[in-house]
Amino acid sequence: MQRHYGLDWLRIGAFAILIVYHVGMVFVPWDFHAKLPGAWWVAVPMMASNPWRLALLFLVSGYASRALMLRNKAPWRFARQRSLRLLVPLIFGMAVIVPVQPWVELREKYGYAESFVHFWLHDYFRFGTIGPLFLPAWNHLWFVAYLWVYTLVLALGALLLPSFVRRAIQRGFTWTMRGPALLVVPIAWMVLVSFWLFPGARETHGLIDDGVAHFSYFPFFLFGYALACAPQTLAALVARWKASAVIALAAYVVVAGVEIRWPGSRMPYPWGIVFSVARSVEGWAAVAALIGYADGHWNRDRSWRRMLTEAVFPFYIVHQSIIVLVAFWLAPLALPGGVAFAVLVAATLAGCWSFYLGGRAIGPLRPLIGLRRHASRRTHVDPRPAIV
């Protein structure tokens, strides 16, 4: 497989949106580890990416996994390689990067009075609870943990299923996902998950008790895996990206309208149903539009692409801890919302770049922040797929 630069750019953009989204979480009424004074309307622009940002990342990860599976040839080699690349930074992140988040949350919400050093040395690794929080925690790194589990399931399936069964599944996917079903089937599945399989359920990010997340994200991961060897499906996404974008925009207008009418409250019948269905439509239509546009317009390399692609994983590992800590420091200053938002974005970007540039320059730290142990000497050719 050739590297798909369009999906690299999508992945970079999706993680950039994720960072801004998590900055926004500080200001909306929704629960978060640290809060600053905000306004209900901040939730409205956040709804523009809320239904699809994670689904897109899992899909792109599935696409990259197909390339890695083909390159490693044996499923057990694929599983070993992915385990090393995902579990090492996950464990490092849980032990070193994440702890500041529950410390801030316990201090701000539950009256915890000890210093961070005391918390990290005496309370964080208790494998039990303080207040409502179970420690140690992975917080935002749940994505990495879920991706590792999905990788193992994929490798197990490739090991156990005969090759003719795998080929039949791929042919069935390609034959189905090239016409109207390309929009209808994923949207119908998302509505089914929301209204029949897990009505009213919310994601827990606790792995074992998070059926709604697994039934939502694992199919996107598998879709990306199958898409990597389905050029007809990719061509259909390219041909329909404008129609998909119009549908996604119309669905977002409905979502935003309902949110503005009933901000942060329980929506009366039937508007709660309308809201959930519109989110499902927006979620898949936006993903379909973005993939189609990326393949048709962004599938080309640029000088900054390689560094940004490499930087994405370290940025993801550290960004939320920076946001939470800086918000904690800003709280006593009572800055206007716009100023606080700008400071948070600037501080987060500066901290992420420092974390990435410093970590990649020190050989032993590279695997801990999600980078290959040794920097590649290749400067012009980069056929390897994105790692997350």
From TrEMBL:
Residues 5-356 form the Acyltransferase domain. Keywords: Membrane, Transmembrane, Transmembrane helix. It comes from the Bacteria. It holds the Pfam family Acyl_transf_3. This is Acyltransferase 3 domain-containing protein. InterPro entries: Acyl_transf_3_dom, Glucan_succinyl_AcylTrfase. The chain crosses the membrane at residues 12-32, 83-104, 141-161, 181-198, 218-238, 245-263, 269-291, 312-331, 337-357.
